[in-house]
Amino acid sequence: MDTIQFSVHEFMTLMGILNEQERDGDGVPKTSVWHKWKKRYQDLDKDLEKLDMMDRADMLFDGKVKFEDVPREDIQEVLGLVQDHIKHEQSLIEEHHPDADPDEVEIWQTLHARLETSLEWDG
User: Fold this and answer.
1) pTM of the prediction?
2) pLDDT at 71 over 90
3) How many domains would you assign to the chain?
4) What pLDDT is recorded for position 123?
């Protein structure tokens, strides 16, 4: 078990991916972090909606979301989501998509490295 800390941006993006899977009928496993962290995601989404654009941006990139005693399986699930998201961001760059942003790739690669380190420490 370990502690995981995300920026609000990272957390909302990852939970947004799971939310889309659930909404599109793909579903998520009963053991998914989606079910464990859904309430936090929904509350944070409501809080973000109340903010003006500048305050929302500050919260997304400066705010933190922290979870204590996260089991190894949950960290592995999040790591898989991060890997998929890195591939998505890299494909945007390769396609010269207007939303492509090399800084996003760097943000997600840094999170990926933190999660891998966490798994290594956890044994």
Assistant:
1) 0.90
2) yes
3) 1
4) 56
